[in-house]
Amino acid sequence: MSHGRYNRRQLLRITGGMSMLGAAAPFAAQLAAAGNAASQSAPDYRALVCVFLFGGNDSHNMVLATDQDSWGRYFATRNTGTDPIALMPVGTAPTTVGQVNPVTGRVATAGDPGAWGGVLPIVPRSLNPIPEGTNASVRTFGLHPFMQPVKDLFDADRLAIVANVGTLIQPITKAQYEARSAPIPSNLFSHNDQQSTWQAGQTEGARVGWGGRFGDMLSMENGTSALFTAVSTAGNAVFLSGQSIVQYQMSTGSQPAVVITGQSGNSLFGSKVAPGRVRDTIRDTSQASLFAADYATTTDRSISAATTLNTVFTSSAVTGVPVPPTYRNPITGATESNTLATQLQTVARMIAAAPALGLRRQVFFVSLGGWDSHDVQNTAQGNNLSKVAHALSYFDGALANIGGVNMRNAVTTFTASDFSRTFNTNGDGTDHAWGGHHLVMGGSVRGGDIYGQYPTLGIDQGTFRNPDMTRSYLIPTTSVDQYGATLGRWLGVSETNLDVIFPNLRNMASRGLGFMA
Prior knowledge:
The protein is α/β, with parallel strands linked by helices.
């Protein structure tokens, strides 16, 4: 982590981000119009929502190739160890806990994939090309058995899968990687560095992310409400940091909009005038110290922004956003909190407030942790994938009626993660790897299909040599730059600016992936 010197402007940007601050904006006119505007559709409104899965999601158990050749190598590799992580083939009935699973021969436990039934079959609209090394006439696919809501979205053409995405400088073959004869991203298997590279194109210490750069390019669409262009419900994220845009961080729960504690209190130390005096002192911009004056200015903006947002959040469109349905752990049956669904509720409420604020372009960041599955992967990842499916289904339903308007076409939600995991098991989990599969959801998504090349599966063994996998990890065939550029182009970022934001894009064979209408 870098601890270099900060200049005055950088320090103010950092403190501004931590305090949910941004550019000054006159909000009175917006508040006056808030009563009716919230029930109308914002003109040409579009939003991106990044769902970051912190820790590295094992996408080999999220999206699976089920043709006989691929499944044979998958099952033989993963059905080993003290707690095998291989899922059951399509059509396998759930096994009652305590009974012997006919596929594995093991007595099923609640946390054993043998008890869950087979993977859920999906039928892409296009035939995915059969790569070198795969012995199949047609590729077939499935989803984790706990992801029925995602299958429903896929079947409804509102969700697509993008195969084998990863950080890349340029396309690279297995031979080039093993010979180190082509440039390779730095620190490939480091959580912090790959989280940063996914979000910002550089390793840990990067200060500007591609979501924030989208905001820089499009914030003029939001006029005086540019402060709300880049919004995080998951704390400070380099993904949303721009060169001019400062991310607005929001809390979740019963009152998602931020409140500046005590600013409107009735008394302090027994005095009824003290709260006002404290507020005036905090907002005093006439101090001799430039830093103190600037700090007061940004604090004043924060108070004004929070007041505006909390006022708009009382509109019927915002309060009408439904709460997520109860979430139950599919393994234990216990009721649990799904923080991802709660964050997406806040995003939906912010989208409902967009017309009143005059917003036309927004970028959001939400996250779910717990994906670093070196151990107990079955129960940890299974529950997390179920949470993702539950949250995406909820969000899709909420967007269908925002103040009486179907906003699905205006919002695109996509997943991102540090990296995927090793194809083999370490006994009861998986380790850090590289390329992985991702989900993109929205009404403008060309859903019901798989984009990019789904790879050949299997570790080199005997005469078998997998051109898509080295050791036990996939070499990406789709770059984060291509993935992000496809999303940015839909949002309205120009081709010239995409080349600035994604400097490696010019190295790729194609500039887009085709999953956006």
